[in-house]
Amino acid sequence: MPLCCREAVGVVPIANGKQDTPHWGNSFTAQVSQVVYAGGAIRSGIRMAELGREMAELDVEKNRQEVRFLLTGYYLDLCKLGNQVEVVRQNIALTHKEIEQMKARRGEGTVLQNDITRYEFQLQSLELTLTKLIDASTIINHLLVTTLHLPEQTVIVPDKNELDTDINALSAIAAQETWQQAASDNNIGIHQATVATNLAKQKVKQAKAASLPSVAVVAENQFFGPYTQDLIPKDCNVNVWFVGIGVKFSLGSLWKNKHNIRKARIEHRQSQEALALAREGVENGVQANYTNLLTSYTEVKTQQKQVELANQNYSVVQNRYQNDLALLTDMVDASNMKLSAEMALVNARISMLYHFYKLKYVTNTL
């Protein structure tokens, strides 16, 4: 028996049995969601990304300062060795001159061969010292060339005039407060600790945001066909859309997130303590290096006076020895004193420059 459906417009007959269903179908869904409130998680997430980039930039600058200080140390070592080589060569030339004079006096019978032998022994010692200094200079030069990625055969010659200019400029050293302020403004370690503190603060906000609901505006459009939800499938497309507000909240966060918030707060306090320690360490470093710089400046002045006295003593002893009023041992002692004073002056001058550049490295103004 055929079934029928009554409608206001009349009777529509419906056949018994299986109804024909279209074999082809399509379905398309587009959904758009925009979070309008997330408890501050979005803003803090953006801020954390910015702080992460800043931390990476500080790491690059820190590496740059370390490389500069490394190269400065190599360069100052090369300057020191070059000055020592010059001092030793001058003493070798002076020893040669003394030996020639002794040989001439030996012909006159006023100098023994033992005296000449002793000075020749001293000459051999000076030549050995010269060889060691040249070899050490070769090693330092290779380190500089390798670090700077220069050709292997490159020979770096320090500019002595510029070096003397830097040393003379240190006579007007800025006050310690100036260096402390420079360190506070430029030290990378302090900046990194500050960024780490800000990151920890944003993590606290992130942890708190997890305990708050998230609100979003949602829009969705569905386009599909055929329509099969009716008794008789229809080969047609249906478009459904809606706009609404979605609220998402995790009830478990009321219990579980307390631990995360407490942990984030503890990490924030630790970062603040690390920042205070970084400032204290930099302040101590500036004070120590500034004091060392003042000490090295005094040492240079002292060594300059000692070189002057050693040269005067050598001239007096040499004159007395030539007039047979002093022993050879006095002459040798005066020569060794002169050499030691000149070498000490070279070391003191380079040491003063080293402490100056180390002070710039501590303040990260190198």
In short:
Helix content is 69%, strand content 12%. It has helices at residues 41-108, 113-148, 160-169, 176-186, 188-209, 253-322, 328-362; strands spanning 3-7, 10-14, 26-37, 214-225, 238-248. β1 and β2 form a beta hairpin.
Q: Spell the H/E element sequence.
A: EEEHHHHHEEHH
Helix proportion range: 55-70%
Runs with pLDDT <50, length 5+?
Answer: 1-9
Strand order of the largest sheet: 3-4-5
Give the distance, in angstroms, between the N- and C-terminal Cα atoms: 102 Å
Count of DSSP-assigned helices: 7
Radius of gyration: 43 Å
Strand content: 5-15%
- What best-fitting shape do the alpha-carbon axes yield? elongated
pLDDT averaged residue by residue? 83
Major sheet description: 3 strands, antiparallel
Please report the total strand number as a whole number.
Answer: 5
Class based on secondary structure composition and strand pairing: alpha+beta
Question: Which tags fit this structure?
Answer:
5 strands, disordered N terminus, three-stranded antiparallel beta sheet, alpha+beta, 7 helices, two-stranded antiparallel ribbon
What's the arrangement of secondary structure elements?
Blueprint: E1 3-7, E2 10-14, E3 26-37, H1 41-108, H2 113-148, H3 160-169, H4 176-186, H5 188-209, E4 214-225, E5 238-248, H6 253-322, H7 328-362
Antiparallel strand pairs: 1-2, 3-4, 4-5
Helix pairs in contact: 1-2, 1-5, 1-7, 4-6, 5-6, 6-7
